[in-house]
Amino acid sequence: MGLGGYLQLPFAQHALIAGTLIAIISGFIGPFVVARQMAFAVHGAAELSFTGAAAGLVIGNNPVVGALLGSVVVAGLIGVLGEKPRERDSAIGVVLAAGLGLGVFLLSRYHGFSTAATNILFGNIFGVSTGDLLLLVILAVAVLIIMVIIYRPLLFASIDPELAKARGVRTRMLGIVFLVILALTVTEAAQIVGTLLVLSLAITPAAAAQRFAAAPLVVTGLSVGFALMATDGGILLSLGSSSVPPTVYVTGISFAIYLVARLVGPVILRRRRERLRLHRLESSRSASDVYIKSFE
Amino acid sequence: MEISPGELIAVLGPNGSGKTTLLRVLLGLLRPVSGSVEIQGAPPRPASRNVGYIPQHHDFDAGLPIRGRELVELGLTGHRYGIPWPRRDITEAVDHAISEVGAQGYADAPVGLLSGGEQQRLRIAQALLGDPSVLLCDEPLLALDPRRQQEITELIDRHRTTHNAAVLFVTHEINPILPYVDRVLYLVQGRALLGEPDEVFTKETLSELYGAPVDVLEVNGRLFVISGDEGANHLLGHHHEHDNEEVPWD
């Protein structure tokens, strides 16, 4: 069956819809993750969705709901234990280790199909049921609405927390809201690329986007675009070649975009620095003109 | 104590004497334990448009996804919810503030690439955006070379004179701003003193404030406060071993 034939099938359509939604929300939160230096929180939340999913499997045979509920618990724990930025990484490490231990225990209690467990770790975009899709649509819309609402104060709080506080931005509340959104998004993304590879959707596109632009809205747009390219491109390539799982293509494309950004980024940066240097030269020359004139 | 419009008050004192706490109270971030504070007849609250704030200087990371003009704009709209779509009236106000501080040449560059002086100019543009009638500056000259110190002080002073704004200028170093200072608020270990510079900077007044013999030297119109007393010397910041800030008064 060719690619066109696959696209008639519900599993492929579900995969593309799910992939698109997750790419949009991951790409949207990515620049904030990078600006707030929360890459490790993403990693921690992603791995811990394994524990939540395992709990969901054991208790109700539903890993997705288990992972989502677990992610909120994890966000709360990280938020409470790692309130100070300096303590955050160690708090994540502590919660991560304890949570994974619990996950291994839960999985040892589970006697169903073992693919259910590997699906949590490496993702199974081609196993998205209609129910999963519905849940994802609701979640993605909720995440997008909240992100659009808090975009500007969150940007302010991420760039200059002290001043933001002085200007009446509730930086603490925003930090916790963002942490919950992050955990929910990451858990959903884990359904596609798996917990271990979730960074390639929540961080890599944003990290690449930052090397092309500096205006916040442009960076956000590029980040969403790159995430879409990686996810939908990866799914389509996988459908076309059938034997290679989509995770490989998604992470591969994502990494390729990042490599291009690393190659092109320095050129853009050099041009910017050069323009700045010329400007400084010009303004110091005009300043010395004034200085010389005052002696005439 | 009362500060009039158009007045520039220098706030001086050793580390931990409460300079930043005073600003936090005026910003509405802290409530005074006793007494009351009013700005134009109302208690201070965060996000009030008639108070401009220039925070302590710290460098922005090179990779931050923000340019100078967005940084300035956040000073006006950063507390509002929503997406910062470009709006003509806001863009015009931002352009105006940027040209006021002479930052047109680098307003479109990522802030992380800019020098300390350039970043500080943008911060001033950000603080001046709402035409505040009160300007709170927390060591805005820290880590700048003398020429930049002079430029930044002139910008702040220009806003004071053109908008008749009251300025509270927290600083470690009085000399760069001495020509502009109307009065000095000197804080030492819970004691406070308010007066004109030539009243405050005398051997007698400062010795009483520090509770130890302190000398004031004037060299070429510049003031130097020194002490042979170990305790007072510590407060004055002449202890180089664990001083992570600039040595004040030098």
From TrEMBL, chain A:
User: Ribosomal protein: present as a keyword of the record?
Assistant: no
Task: Classify the main location.
Answer: membrane
- Topology with regard to the membrane? Multi-pass membrane protein
Transmembrane stretches, start-end: 12-33, 40-59, 65-82, 94-113, 133-157, 169-186, 192-209, 216-237, 249-269
What does the record list as GO biological process? transmembrane transport
Q: Sorted alphabetically, which keywords does the UniProt record give?
A: Membrane, Transmembrane, Transmembrane helix
Tell where it localizes.
Membrane
Q: Which InterPro entries would you find in this protein's record?
A: ABC_BtuC-like, ABC_TroCD
The reply on keyword rRNA-binding is no
Q: Which SUPFAM superfamilies match?
A: ABC transporter involved in vitamin B12 uptake, BtuC
- Gene Ontology cellular component list: ATP-binding cassette (ABC) transporter complex
Which family does the record assign? Belongs to the ABC-3 integral membrane protein family.
Q: What is this protein called?
A: Unannotated protein
UniProtKB/TrEMBL annotation, chain B:
Q: Which UniProt keywords apply?
A: ATP-binding, Nucleotide-binding, Transport
Gene3D superfamilies given for it?
A: P-loop containing nucleotide triphosphate hydrolases (3.40.50.300)
One Pfam assignment: ABC_tran
Give the protein's recorded name. Unannotated protein
Q: Which PROSITE patterns match?
A: ABC_TRANSPORTER_1, ABC_TRANSPORTER_2
Give the organism the record lists: freshwater metagenome
Gene Ontology terms, MF aspect: ATP binding; ATP hydrolysis activity
Domain ABC transporter, first and last residues per copy? 1-214
PANTHER family, per this entry?
METAL TRANSPORT SYSTEM ATP-BINDING PROTEIN TM_0124-RELATED
